Amino acid sequence: MRLRFRFVDGLPGGAYEELITTGLDALVRRSGLQTVVEGLDSAEAPEILAAHLERVATRVLDSLPIERRLSVVNGVLSGLIADTGRATESDLVADPPAMLYSVGAATERPQNPLRRADLLINARGEPALHEELVAEIASADRVDLLCAFIKWQGLSS
After folding, report:
1. CB within 8 A of 69, min separation 6: which ones?
2. 31, 32, 71, 148: which one has the fewest Cβ atoms less than 10 Å from its Cβ?
């Protein structure tokens, strides 16, 4: 999890990796501190801009009444369809909004959402690593696994 700072009372000095918004640009200018700024790398730009759009959209949608959210989302998507031609009508969210959780024979679902990458730590009260793996693998068409195993003895040395 990345910590996100809200720059309310100024801009603390330190290392950053933040997309410069108009609000952040104003804080940087007011700070009078020396800065290092680089243009967006064209290969990373889509991911960085999409992440910013996701944060703003989440904040906006969270503030709206539930009955308004669908029209706002489909309005943004309609703008993308009209402006770029890279999105299509099939990208619009169906009304009423719903999630598809299985097709065909029902499979056991993991406790953590499939749409999100989570850190499984096998701690008390958390989903058991082996149970989550079994549930994930049962419905996977591909598996990418990165894991580190640390024993208490290794930490205490």
Report:
1. 61, 97
2. 148
Residue listed under structure tokens 């959402």: 113
Q: Give the number of other Cβ atoms within 10 Å of residue 68's Cβ.
A: 11
pLDDT in tens, 44-80: 999 999 999 999 999 999 999 999 999 999 999 999 9
Is 0.70 topped by the overall pTM? no
Nearest Cα neighbor of 120 from 111, 156, 137 is: 111
Task: Return the residue matching tokens 């706002």.
Answer: 72
Q: In this structure, what are the phi and psi dihedrals at residue 60, rounded to the nearest 5 degrees?
A: -65, -50
Indicate the domain borders of the chain: 1-38, 45-91, 100-157
